[in-house]
Design brief:
The protein is an alpha+beta fold and 365 residues long. It is built from seven helices and 23 strands. Helices cover 22% and strands 36% of the residues. It is flat, with a radius of gyration of 33 Å.
Length: 365
C-alpha cells in the first residue's frame, strides 16, 4: 500500500510538472456524440420606434400572428406598420440540455428594418434539422448597435443595429438523444488530427488507467474502454479529460493573407541555401498640354501641343542570403533588417517556394 501511495504521488507530481508544456485532454479533444445542435426559427419583432419595415410580407406575417391570437382583420383594411420587423432566430442547443433549461438566442432582421433596438420578440418555435421543435424563444432584445438619420439623408451607424440577442431567451422543450451512455467504449476526437498526438494520448491513458484501455483508430480517433453505468462513466471521464498530454508540433507552414498583408511563419520552417535579389521599379508618366501662340503679324492659328515626360525610378535592390538550416528567427531578422514591406516578404516567400528552397507549406488565404 505504501509503494502504491508513493507511486501515485510521483505520478501526480509528474502530471503537475508537465502542465506548462502540455495540454489537458479536454483542451485538445472532444467526445464523439457529445455536441451542440443548431436551432432556427422565424418570427416577428414588435415595439420598434419607427425603425420597422412596412413591407408586404411583414404585413402578411402580422395578419397571420393576429389570426393565431383570434383576431381577424378585414381584407379591405390597409395596414401600415413601422414598428414591426421580420426576423430569424438562431440558437445552439447544448449537449445534455433538458426541458426547462434556458439558452441564449440571436435575432437578426430579414428585411428592410433599420434597427431592432427596443423591440420585443413574439413567441417563436425553434426547430432542428429534423423539423422538430426543441425550444421556444421570446423576450426583449439587447441591441449593441445604434443608428441615426437626418432629414437630409445623412446618417450615422455604430456597430450593427439590425442584430440583437436575448440572454436566456429560449426555453428548452425537448432533449436530444445522445450516444454518450451507450456501448462499452467512448471515442475521443482530436481537434487537430495528428498521428503523433493520437499516439501520445493513447500512451498517457494506458500508463495511468491500465494497458490496453485505449487504442488509436486513426489520426483523430482514440477508442477508450468505459464502464456502462452512467454515473461511473461520468466520474471516469472526469478523470480522463484532466490527463495531461504532449501535443505534437504543427507541420511547417507559412500562412499569407493577401488582403491584409498579414504573414505568419510557423515553427520548424527551414530554408535551403538561397540568394534572392528583390527591388521595385516605378514608372511615372506625366502628360502636359502647351499652347503655341503665333506672332501678331503672322497669319497663323493657335495650336495645342502635347508634351509627355517619362520618369523611371528604381529602388535599391534588397539582397537576401540564406545559409543551410536557416530557422524562423533568421528569416524574420533578414527581412526586417532591410525594412521589407509585407508585399516584399510575400514575393520573397513565393520565390523561395518556386525554387524548392522553402521547406514548408505555403498557404495563401
Amino acid at each position: 500500500m505504501k509503494h502504491l501511495l508513493i507511486k501515485y504521488i510521483c505520478l501526480m507530481m509528474l502530471m503537475l510538472s508537465s502542465i506548462a508544456v502540455a495540454e489537458r485532454v479536454k483542451d485538445i479533444a472532444t467526445i464523439k456524440g457529445v455536441r451542440s445542435n443548431p436551432l432556427v426559427g422565424y418570427g416577428i419583432v414588435v415595439g420598434l420606434d419607427g425603425t420597422g419595415e412596412p413591407t408586404v410580407y411583414a404585413i402578411q406575417e402580422f395578419r397571420t400572428m393576429l389570426q393565431k391570437l383570434g383576431i381577424t382583420l378585414p381584407s379591405d383594411i390597409r395596414v401600415k406598420l413601422k414598428n414591426v420587423a421580420i426576423v430569424t432566430v438562431q440558437a445552439e442547443l447544448p449537449p445534455f440540455a433538458q426541458p426547462g433549461q434556458t439558452i441564449d438566442v440571436t435575432v437578426s432582421s430579414l428585411g428592410e428594418a433599420k434597427s431592432l433596438r427596443g423591440g420585443s420578440l413574439i413567441m417563436v418555435p425553434l426547430k432542428g434539422i429534423d423539423g422538430k421543435v426543441y425550444a421556444i424563444a421570446q423576450g426583449n432584445l439587447v441591441v449593441g448597435g445604434f443608428g441615426a438619420q437626418g432629414s437630409d439623408g445623412s446618417k450615422v451607424t455604430i456597430n450593427v443595429p439590425t442584430t440583437g440577442r436575448i440572454p436566456n431567451g429560449a426555453t428548452v422543450e425537448k432533449s436530444v438523444d445522445s450516444s454518450f451512455s451507450k456501448g462499452d467504449f467512448i471515442t475521443f476526437l482530436l481537434k487537430r488530427p495528428d498521428f503523433t498526438t493520437a499516439k501520445n494520448l493513447t500512451n498517457a491513458i494506458n500508463n495511468i488507467i491500465g494497458p490496453g484501455i485505449a487504442r488509436p483508430i486513426d489520426a483523430s480517433s482514440i477508442k477508450v474502454s468505459a464502464p456502462r453505468d452512467v454515473s461511473q462513466r461520468v466520474m471516469y471521464l472526469s478523470s480522463l479529460e484532466n490527463i495531461v498530454v504532449h501535443e505534437a508540433d504543427a507541420p511547417a507552414r507559412v500562412v499569407v493573407n493577401s488582403r491584409t498583408g498579414t504573414i505568419v511563419i510557423g515553427q520548424h520552417v527551414r530554408v535551403s541555401p538561397a540568394a534572392i535579389s528583390h527591388g521595385n521599379l516605378v514608372v511615372t508618366i506625366d502628360e502636359n498640354q502647351q499652347v503655341s501662340q503665333p506672332n501678331a503679324l503672322a497669319q497663323g492659328t493657335t495650336q495645342t501641343t502635347q508634351q509627355s515626360q517619362v520618369t523611371i525610378e528604381q529602388e535599391p535592390s534588397r539582397m537576401f542570403l540564406f545559409s543551410p538550416g536557416v530557422e524562423l528567427k533568421d528569416i524574420v531578422a533578414a527581412v526586417n533588417a532591410v525594412g521589407a514591406a509585407p508585399g516584399d516578404i510575400m514575393a520573397v516567400l513565393e520565390a523561395l517556394k518556386q525554387a524548392n528552397a522553402l521547406h514548408a507549406e505555403l498557404i495563401v488565404i
